[in-house]
Write a structure and sequence with these properties.
single chain, 460 residues, alpha+beta, 4 domains, six-stranded antiparallel β-sheet, 12 helices, 17 strands, 37% helix, DNA-binding
Length: 460
DNA sequence: CGAAGAAGTCGACCGGTCCC
DNA sequence: GGGACCGGTCGACTTCTTCG
């Protein structure tokens, strides 16, 4: 028999030819690949010219002919044709040889023309070596890919900078027009600005602008003017912080970049040596599921362990119907978590889960401090991260009080309004002198999640 | 030395995957 | 669900090589 990988190696004039041939092994390069069924192969290979090269090979004696002008014999095209045949991964159609193949056959001298190994002194080319050099070549394409990434990044930074400039102008316009009028036209105005920020590749900031009207209208009318100032002020703060991110401590820099819309790939976080990891027994104390404007369901699982909090966040398309993370309030499991970098680290990923999650009746491991101290901790966190969002408030010895329609959770000094949606469901708790528990405080209202009382547990 | 074409280089494009 | 990102591929362009 005839062709083998060893034979192809032997024929190759040098290592470079083999490497070049390897790149031609994909069928897409070959408009024609055929055989006559008795050891004659031919094909057309699209080179850099307009007309493809024509290659013919005889399997029996490894004869070859190529119309390319290469001065190497055999050229990469002939080598590639033989290689593909030996590998057998590519289909050769069967047919009668075209004229140009017959032409070559008729003019061809005998099989003996193949000079048997002048190759004694030339370095032997090897297919294995091609595979090896592939890896060696990698750094080059790696560098090119890195350059492309860097280019993309700079482009996006430029787009974001433009977006922030537009935001500044927009904010100034709102101030000029007067903030009292803002709520009445907020929906239309915010939609336009959000779209612009989205186009400026700042999707995080865009989402924030987009949802301003919803947050405003959730408030009593009297509270809206102040909220407008806070919302627009926060936008200004974020735009400024992003521009000056070089001056910020690294965790806060991550925060502002994340708020604007940069993301951290799961893999990158798992591979990050410096990311904070905590192994502990974690207790699920709340789960939330909320549909976002972009038709995604955001599922949060809030955890407590080793005297700290963490939240797992996953996103599921609404269309898939799934609305739960698989965890239930009260579940306990051992796991190592890795926290997303932040000045107030909360969001985390599970690195490895050591035990499965089990429903547990054990009481929550509550701290010794009261609501006043808990609120103090919130304020400290707020200093670290001004756009904090939801923050866990874990307390002992607080009391629920009612004032008109509103319900408040009261400590000695602090009174936190309960979420309106809970004013009815929380009424059984009004009877207790003191309750322990945990809730999520978003800066304006508290969503009570879990409470231990003299009569037992209350869960939202 | 110039022509011709191979080979190398680089950006554009595309489809699959990931992330929010 | 939909954009961002990544790796792979394609093709235009440049550089290199060789020969008459």
């Amino acid at each position: 028999m005839s062709l083998s990988l060893a034979k192809v190696e032997e024929l190759a004039p040098d290592q470079g030819s083999l490497a070049a041939a390897k790149k031609l092994l994909k069928p897409s390069t070959w408009p024609t690949l055929a055989q006559d069924g008795s050891g004659l192969l031919w094909g057309e290979c699209q080179g850099s010219g307009a007309t493809p090269y024509r290659i013919a090979v005889t399997e029996a004696d490894a004869g070859y002919k190529c119309s390319c002008p290469s001065r190497k014999f055999p050229c990469k095209h002939s080598l590639a044709l033989m290689w593909m045949r030996v590998e057998g991964r590519v289909d050769f159609s069967t047919g009668t040889p075209p004229d140009w193949v017959n032409d070559w056959l008729s003019r061809r001298r005998g099989p003996s023309t193949i000079a048997p190994a002048t190759g004694a002194e030339r370095p032997k080319a090897s297919i294995a070596a091609v595979e090896e050099t592939e890896i060696a070549v990698d750094p080059k394409s790696e560098a090119r890919a890195a350059a492309a990434r860097e280019r993309n990044r700079l482009e996006r930074e430029a787009a974001i900078a433009n977006g922030l400039d537009e935001l500044d102008v927009w904010l100034a316009d709102q101030m000029d027009a007067g903030l009292a009028a803002f709520p009445s036209k907020a929906i239309a105005m915010c939609k336009v600005m959000a779209q612009r920020l989205f186009d400026a590749k700042a999707p995080g900031l865009a989402a924030r602008v987009d949802t301003i009207p919803a947050r405003l209208f959730a408030l009593a009318e009297a509270a809206r003017p102040t909220a407008v100032v806070q919302e627009l002020g926060m936008l200004h703060l974020m735009a400024q912080a992003y521009r000056r991110q070089e001056l910020l401590a690294e965790p806060l820099r991550h925060d502002i970049r994340q708020m604007i819309g940069w993301t951290i790939a799961r893999e990158a976080l798992l591979a990050d040596e410096r990311a904070e990891r905590v192994a502990s027994t974690w207790r699920v104390w709340a789960t939330r599921s909320e549909v976002q404007p972009d038709k995604l369901r955001r599922i949060e699982t809030w955890l407590h362990g080793s005297d700290r909090h963490a939240v797992l966040i996953e996103y599921v398309p609404v269309s898939t119907g799934s609305s739960s993370s698989g965890y239930s309030v009260g579940d306990t499991f051992d796991a190592e978590l890795v926290f997303y970098p932040s000045s107030v680290p909360l969001r985390a990923l599970i690195v490895r889960q050591i035990t499965g999650s089990d429903a547990s009746d054990a009481p929550l491991a509550l701290p010794t401090h009261d609501l006043d101290v808990a609120y103090g901790l919130y304020e400290e966190a707020l200093i670290e991260k001004p756009w904090l969002g939801d923050y866990p408030i874990m307390f002992r010895g607080a009391r629920l009080k009612r004032s008109g329609q509103a319900v408040y959770l009261s400590g000695n000094q602090v009174n936190l309004p309960l979420a309106k949606s809970q004013s009815a469901t929380s009424w059984p708790l009004l009877q207790f002198e003191a309750i322990d528990g945990i809730g999520l405080w978003d800066g304006s209202e508290l969503t009570l999640c879990w409470s231990e009382t003299a009569l037992g547990r209350w869960v939202a």
